[in-house]
């Protein structure tokens, strides 16, 4: 797909898309199409509406956005153009924006339009519409629109990478795949990449990480990305859960295992966000850690009731091998904190069904020991439709993770407060970092949507992290 700012001519047979706000419909029609008249029953510019008509050899789509659409609503409305009306596109599209479209709305529209070209049919012999060669003209009167276009292209590229990582099958997207992805990113951007294999991880004391990996023939990879900017005043540390497939281990899952390729949604979020932040040259120092493993079953798999070590030095009693994500995150958090000392420490993980039971697929569960950071995360996400909501991590909950035989246990064994107790487990490995936040994204990283027949990746967290780092930290 190739975007062109203010094309000099409109090719015959183009699809011309014109977004319309509901409260500006009459004024818009008088100015844009003075000879056009149709009743409100055909087009009212309400949210989720559109109207098609031919004119001068082209096809015009009026896209209704309602009165005051948010970022996510605009993104979704424009994503529908190619995802649901791709057959109307014959080679050229013109996105004709009114002057009332501000920079944020324009960005959302361009990102959404590009996302409409994404399909998860990677292995089909005959794929759906291929929009790679599509030419897209952008009309907007703002002199800064070209800069917005370049920014939107980078956001789009990062989100599609996050989509792909979550949607690819686990025989393709392995720990080694993620490690190679990180190395390639380092070649393309001003980033340093470090990848530990099992031998190096053992030397670094990443015992909890290695315990989870024991049951899989696929070698684990502990991935570190370092992005540095000369004008940075803050150092942000990110950790993403990278379980490329989760059988549950010996506590094997009894349902929903088909979807466990998505258990690296946290890794996808932080890796794609790192790509985006580096490509935009955001003035921040960023260190991203992804412990990448497969939680499988064989004669070497770690056992319930084992006591394992960890990078922090704490011993961990294994109550449930399906509580594996917190184990690799524990080592990731401990290593990042000890070796890099970031100002803020944030982890993303598809961690618990409890978070889904509490919030469904509407928002992520947020835990933090820093009220200011928690507020900033909420504000950054809400502005883009990536919602979070805080839950407590009181000391009373932490007591649930006490073990008689070890320093801590990985699961409290009760059908209550699952997301909260998991968060208190993670906090025990932050070495009392004063500004830590954990986002349990189990319900929002991989979900049903109108754009696919089955669950697919959402790129949740990519926009949130960019907004957080650019505007709130």
Helix-strand blueprint:
Elements: E1 2-5, E2 15-20, H1 25-32, E3 50-55, E4 58-64, H2 71-85, E5 92-96, H3 103-115, E6 135-139, H4 145-167, H5 175-188, E7 191-196, H6 198-203, H7 207-213, E8 221-227, E9 235-240, E10 242-246, H8 265-279, E11 285-295, E12 307-308, E13 316-317, H9 325-340, E14 344-349, H10 353-359, E15 364-368, H11 371-382, E16 388-390, H12 395-398, E17 408-409, H13 418-427, E18 436-440, E19 446-447, E20 456-457, H14 462-471
Parallel strand pairs: 1-6, 2-4, 2-5, 5-6, 9-11, 9-14, 10-11, 13-17, 14-18, 15-16
Antiparallel strand pairs: 3-4, 7-8, 8-11, 12-13, 15-18, 19-20
Helix pairs in contact: 2-3, 3-4, 4-8, 7-9, 8-14, 9-13, 11-14
Can you walk through the features of this model?
α3 runs parallel beside α4 (145-167). The mean pLDDT is 94. The chain has two domains: 2-141, Leucine Aminopeptidase, subunit E, domain 1, CATH 3.40.220.10; 157-471, Aminopeptidase. The chain is built from 14 helices and 20 strands. With 473 residues, it is an alpha/beta fold. Helices cover 34% and strands 21% of the residues. The strands form four sheets. Strands 7, 8, 9, 10, 11, 14, 15, 16 and 18 form a nine-stranded mixed beta sheet that branches. Strands 1-6-5-2-4-3 form a six-stranded mixed beta sheet, covered by helices on one side. Strands 12-13-17 form a three-stranded mixed beta sheet.
The CATH architecture of the largest domain: 3-Layer(aba) Sandwich
Question: Count of helices?
Answer: 14
The helix content is: 25-40%
Strand content: 15-25%
Tally the beta strands: 20
Q: Find the CATH topology of the largest domain.
A: Aminopeptidase
Q: CATH class of the largest domain, anyone?
A: Alpha Beta
Radius of gyration (Å)? 24 Å
Backbone structural class: alpha/beta
Main beta-sheet annotation: 9 strands, mixed
The overall average pLDDT, rounded, is 94
Instruction: Report, as a whole number of angstroms, the end-to-end distance.
Output: 34 Å
**What overall geometry do the principal axes of the alpha carbons give?**
elongated
Number of domains: 2
């Amino acid at each position: 797909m190739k975007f062109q700012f203010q094309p000099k001519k409109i090719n015959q047979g183009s699809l011309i898309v014109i977004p319309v706000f509901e409260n500006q419909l009459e004024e818009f029609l008088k100015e844009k199409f003075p000879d056009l008249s149709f009743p409100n029953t055909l087009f009212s510019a309400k949210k989720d509406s559109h109207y098609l008509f031919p004119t001068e050899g082209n096809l015009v789509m009026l896209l209704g956005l309602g009165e005051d659409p948010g970022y996510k609503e605009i993104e979704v409305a424009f994503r529908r153009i190619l995802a649901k009306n791709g057959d109307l596109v014959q080679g050229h599209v013109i996105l004709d924006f009114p002057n009332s479209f501000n920079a944020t709305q324009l960005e959302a529209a361009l990102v959404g339009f590009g996302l409409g070209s994404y399909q998860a049919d990677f292995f089909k012999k005959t794929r759906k519409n291929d929009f790679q060669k599509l030419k897209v003209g952008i009309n907007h009167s703002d002199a800064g629109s070209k800069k917005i276009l370049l920014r939107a292209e980078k956001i789009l590229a990062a989100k599609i990478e996050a989509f792909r990582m979550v949607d690819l099958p686990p025989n393709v997207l392995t720990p080694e795949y993620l490690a190679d992805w990180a190395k390639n990113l380092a070649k393309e951007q001003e980033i340093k990449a470090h990848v530990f294999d099992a031998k190096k991880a053992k030397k670094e004391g990443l015992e909890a990480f290695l315990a989870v990996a024991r049951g899989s023939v696929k070698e684990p990879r502990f991935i570190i990305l370092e992005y540095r900017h000369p004008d940075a005043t803050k150092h942000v540390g990110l950790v993403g859960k990278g379980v490329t497939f989760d059988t549950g281990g010996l506590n094997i899952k009894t349902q929903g295992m088909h979807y466990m390729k998505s258990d690296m949604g946290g890794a996808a979020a932080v890796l794609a966000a790192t790509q985006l932040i580096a490509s935009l040259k955001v003035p921040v120092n960023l260190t991203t850690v992804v412990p990448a493993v497969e939680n499988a079953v064989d004669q070497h798999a770690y056992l319930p009731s084992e006591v394992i070590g960890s990078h922090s030095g704490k011993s961990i009693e294994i109550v449930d091998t399906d509580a594996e994500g917190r184990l690799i995150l524990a080592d990731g958090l401990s290593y990042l904190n000890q070796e890099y000392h970031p100002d803020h420490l944030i982890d993303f993980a598809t961690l618990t069904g409890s978070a889904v039971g509490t919030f469904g697929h509407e928002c992520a569960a947020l835990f933090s020991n820093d009220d200011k950071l928690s507020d900033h995360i909420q504000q950054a996400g809400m502005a883009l439709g990536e919602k979070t909501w805080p839950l407590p991590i009181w000391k009373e909950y932490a007591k649930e993770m006490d073990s008689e035989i070890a320093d801590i246990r990985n699961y409290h064994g009760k059908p209550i407060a699952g997301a909260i107790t998991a968060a208190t487990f993670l906090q025990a490995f932050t070495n009392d970092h004063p500004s830590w936040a954990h986002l349990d994204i189990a319900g929002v990283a991989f979900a049903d949507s109108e754009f696919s027949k089955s669950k697919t990746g959402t790129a949740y967290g990519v926009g949130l992290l960019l907004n957080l780092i650019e505007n709130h930290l």
